[in-house]
Amino acid sequence: LVKLVAASSERMCHHEEQTGDVDACEANPRPGPPSSSTCEFRSLQSKADAKVLLDRLTSIFPESQDSKFDWAHPDEISLAHHKTLVHEEHLTRVLQEKHGGLEVKVEKSLSLEGDVYVRKIFLVSPEGTTVAHAILLAFLDRLPPAVGEGVREEKVPFGRLLMQHVSERCVHLMSCWHVELGEDLKRHLCDQEQSQSGACHRTCGRVVTIECAGKVFVETPIVLVFR
Prior knowledge:
Layout: E1 14-15, H1 47-58, E2 68-72, H2 79-85, H3 91-99, E3 103-111, E4 116-124, E5 130-139, H4 145-153, H5 158-165, E6 168-180, H6 183-189, H7 192-197, E7 202-212, E8 215-225
């Protein structure tokens, strides 16, 4: 299930001062978040490779496959979603700043072979609005104990756990997608009026991997930002 894309040694990664249980590891550098879509993302996959990774991960929760995904270059992501999706920051941080807070709702979780953990989640704003959907696949044996414990407890968004406990990490943007929501996601992301009018049937998403010291420790496919 691992697909590791090597990063350039010229790139800069996240580095934050931490207190408490910290896993300080040396990650490959990457550039800061882009001010425009012309910024180069060196981990971007080809259309064919991106589809293979997406299909492999969405197959874990077959109901997710009733949505239609069309590969898109970052320049093709609409202005409404571009600032939220086209960057190499933790989406948790971006959405927390936008909505003033964020909670995680875990709909399903599974333990696969070894220490591979996967879950289907929805991120909810303080007002109770569902703002995003994601499938998270994590390699628990590569995470510091505090993060692994927090993942299993399923109460705190994964990005927040990393920001609290991992001092250096790389988020790699692997692909962007135009998404036509299937029935499974419509019932979470659209209210009744929107579903009837078709107002929220199309949105955008991305796939990222997160690594530390050259090892991928999480793959996050189909983050679907609706609001």
